[in-house]
Amino acid sequence: MSKLTNISGKDAVKAFQKLGWKPLGQVGSHLVMVKPGVRVNLSIPQHRELSIGTLRALIRHAGLTVEEFLSLF
Model pTM? Predict the structure, then answer.
């Protein structure tokens, strides 16, 4: 299993955009992303560092594994 490290919210948005997720809008400090055909919305905090638990939850909600997500970098 690959090691998940802290990344910024901006980097997480860029990675999810590579998979077809589109920004819908921003609510406070969170960017909401949607993907056609997927019923889940991702709410990504725009912080300098995302905690590993938050990042892991976003990856799980997007239907990815950690290895698939890390391959985007």
Answer: 0.88
In the chain, the number of structural domains is 1
Q: How far is CA 7 from CA 37, 39, 45, in A?
A: 27, 25, 11
d(CA 70, CA 61): 15
**pLDDT for residue 24:** 95
- Give the pLDDT of residue 2: 63
Domain that holds residue 64: 9-70
Does a structural domain hold residue 4? no
Answer yes or no: are the C-beta atoms of 31 and 44 closer than 8 Å. Answer: yes
Instruction: Calculate the CA dihedral of residues 1, 37, 25, 15 and round it to 10 degrees.
Output: 30
CATH number of the domain within which 22 lies: 3.30.920.30
